[in-house]
Design goal:
The chain has helices at residues 6-20, 25-53, 60-77, 101-105, 109-140, 147-159, 177-184, and strands at residues 78-82, 90-94. By secondary structure, it is mainly alpha-helical. It has one domain (9-167). A two-stranded antiparallel ribbon has the order 1-2. Helix 2 crosses helix 5 (109-140) and helix 2 runs antiparallel to helix 6 (147-159). The N and C termini lie far apart (71 Å).
Length: 196
């Protein structure tokens, strides 16, 4: 195996460190701009993987665990591109040729950053919709034509923004314990012992 030069090693280390950092403004914008196409891509790729690996035969658990893993197929089969700043817009398109692991190492630094951004946007989407995707794919796995399911599910998921996915009771803030006890402890059975 050839020895990596210092610039390439620095790039790989930088990319690895970037992958664990909090999402950047570009990554969040990529997620927002590609949400609809990401949904369609994820559902289609899930359908392919379920049939290829017969994931439905052992129940929904295998499908549930495949949802976050589908991002590898997204990175291999789709490309993420951006327009130039200041009004940067991201788009997700199916690749004409599947990206192999060896091809990824030959990419220039900006292409590597786009691959990482694509992976993070996919992970953000699958984190938000893992349960819904798992249920949908388990119910729809036997259908040969997935397009009606893609349209219906992705229309719903695109309509809800990432902010709609969180619990917004109380104006978007996390309720404190006293509020929760007042709301849910109607018979006093879960109140602290000092109130006895």
């Amino acid at each position: 195996m050839p020895r990596l030069g210092r610039p390439l090693a620095a790039l790989i280390i930088g990319v690895a460190l970037h992958a664990w950092a909090a999402p950047s403004a570009d990554e969040l914008q990529a997620f927002r701009d590609t949400r609809g196409t990401m949904c369609r891509a994820v559902v289609r790729e899930m359908h392919i993987e379920i049939h290829k690996h017969k994931l439905r035969k052992n129940g929904e658990d295998d499908i549930y665990e495949t949802v976050p893993a589908i991002c590898l197929a997204i990175v291999q089969n789709y490309s993420l591109t951006a327009t130039a700043p200041p009004s940067r817009k991201w788009s997700l398109k199916k690749r004409a040729v599947r990206l192999d692991d060896d091809d990824a190492l030959d990419q220039n630094p900006s292409m590597m950053m786009h691959l990482i951004t694509l992976k993070k946007a996919c992970e953000h989407f699958t984190d938000d919709f893992q349960q819904e995707l798992s249920e949908l794919m388990y119910r729809s796995a036997l259908l040969h034509d997935i397009e009606p399911i893609v349209s219906e599910f992705c229309e719903k998921s695109s309509a809800s923004s990432a902010g709609d996915r969180s619990d917004t009771d109380g104006g978007g803030r996390m309720p404190d314990m006293a509020e929760l006890l007042k709301r849910f402890d109607t018979d006093g059975s879960i109140s602290p012992a000092e109130n006895l």
